[in-house]
User: Which sequence fits this backbone?
DNA sequence: TATTGTTATACTCTATAACTATA
DNA sequence: TATAGTTATAGAGTATAACAATA
């Protein structure tokens, strides 16, 4: 007896699960956890962000960012330099290796996406994209990249 | 330079995030964690499941089910009775309180869904549902309920 | 006084491996 | 030998609170 909206929510969750199940496996093979991918791609879109900014954009607590940044710095994918204008803060940037990882992420995302949407006619894909864009246009939330 | 499929994947993830962000908050107010909700609704669709069956359907390791079942039993939402036909196994069932929680979950899901899809014309909602169903029809994965 | 990022701590969820009791 | 479920252990990810340094 679910309303149309309820079923739509369930379908959205099911579709997401189907999509990310493959993605997690593929990314995991390359040592890329969802949280790391999210932080890297977010930083790519907002170079020289401070940790606080990333926390806000990602919609997590500031505390959650510290261990991820530590790990990514150890991995050699990002650098953390003192903010010249605010000695409390750090500016994060992608290293060359980090940019290489961004490329890898993009390739993997493309592979996974093309793989999973392969069975869908191109026209349906376009229409689905249009409707999702329309839906997102009517919502708020911390806008953010995939993974 | 993303292909249509890549963008579609990103849109799907973004839409899911927008949807679940509200849901988690709403459910959390009622002490319902995502994992608990998933197990309860799965059990509702497959009464008298064994723990192993649930693990398979949920797509997690058997070990992951034990603490959830313990907690839900303590909460008085499910019962765990020896399987008469296999003395190694247990049969899980929802209690009356558990069925009440299922109703609550359904109400919350409906509220969240109607809330978030409110800005979308009914026709677009139907078309989006149709396309998501079509997409899911072309995929596999451990079929499963929402939250 | 407010803010950035940290340390300390705890919670949820899940995995792997070793074990037991049954099959 | 294989399976159902447990114990033990470990890890990722995140939250809150208290704190330091800076604004």
Assistant:
């Amino acid at each position: 007896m679910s309303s149309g909206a309820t079923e739509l929510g369930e379908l959205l969750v099911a579709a997401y699960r189907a999509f990310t199940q493959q993605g997690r496996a593929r990314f995991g093979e390359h040592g890329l956890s969802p949280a790391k991918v999210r932080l890297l791609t977010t930083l790519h879109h907002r170079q020289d962000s401070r940790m606080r900014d990333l926390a806000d954009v990602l919609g997590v607590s500031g505390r959650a960012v510290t261990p991820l940044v530590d790990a990514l710095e150890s991995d050699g994918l990002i650098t953390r330099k003192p903010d010249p204008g605010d000695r409390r803060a750090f500016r994060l940037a992608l290293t060359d290796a980090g940019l290489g990882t961004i490329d890898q992420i993009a390739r993997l995302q493309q592979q996974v996406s093309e793989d999973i949407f392969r069975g869908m006619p191109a026209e349906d894909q376009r229409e689905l994209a249009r409707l999702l864009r329309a839906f997102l246009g009517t919502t708020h939330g911390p806008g953010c990249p995939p993974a």
Summary: Chain A touches chain B through 56 residues (CB under 8 Å). Strands of chain A lie at 78-83, 86-94.
